[in-house]
Amino acid sequence: MKQINAYKKSLMVLAFSFFAVTGAFAQFSIGAELALPMGTPFSDGVNMGFGGSANYQGAINDNLSWVGYVGYQTYSFKNLPSGYSGSFNMIPIMAGVKYYFTESGAGFYGEVDLGMFIGSASLSGPGAVAPPSESKFGFTPAIGYRVGSFDIGARYNLISDANNLAFRLAYVFGGSK
Predict the structure, then answer these.
(1) Contact 34, 167 (CB under 8 A)
(2) Taking the model in full, what pTM does it have?
(3) Gyration radius of the chain over CA positions
């Protein structure tokens, strides 16, 4: 147990040191998302989703940054029998890189993220039993535009049977722009 605690402490010190060094160039954003389910069976089973996300961005060089992303999306189920209701909820936790095509921290960008998507369902009604939670690996290409303190983007979350196209509007804190 002591070895695990020492590992956790070392990891926290390393993470804190990294964020402190990159802090002058770091940017943090909070945004709202609208997500469209794509492909069968996901789009057949749920309606359009919505949620929110937080993104941390640290500069690698003038145009390239690493990113950390966490979010929450919820979708209501379609075509449930009368007296039943339910939703599917997804928590993406990803890391990746962002490249600005024009200037550092502004203008058009492309982004690629990899990470885990934790999905769970809730279902209510007579005798309803929700399926167990699942975690799946995902890949997300994204494009966007940063102007001033606002970031507008679109991302395609590829998650085996739960793909979605998400649109994000976010407010950006910190950084050089």
Answers:
(1) yes
(2) 0.82
(3) 19
Residue 175, pLDDT score: 66
Q: Is 44 left (phi over 0), alpha (psi -120 to 50) or beta?
A: alpha
| Structural domain includes residue 96 | yes
pLDDT of residue 1: 47
CATH value at residue 108: 2.40.160.20
Amino acid symbol at 69: Y
Kindly give, in sequence order, each residue whose CB lies less than 8 Å from that of residue 85, ignoring residues fewer than 6 positions away.
76, 77, 123, 124, 125
Number of domains making up the chain: 1
Task: Evaluate whether residue 11 is within a structural domain.
Answer: no
Position 6 in a domain: no
Distance, CA of 31 to chain centre: 10
Low-confidence ranges of the chain (pLDDT < 70): 1-25, 175-177
* Domain containing residue 88: 26-174
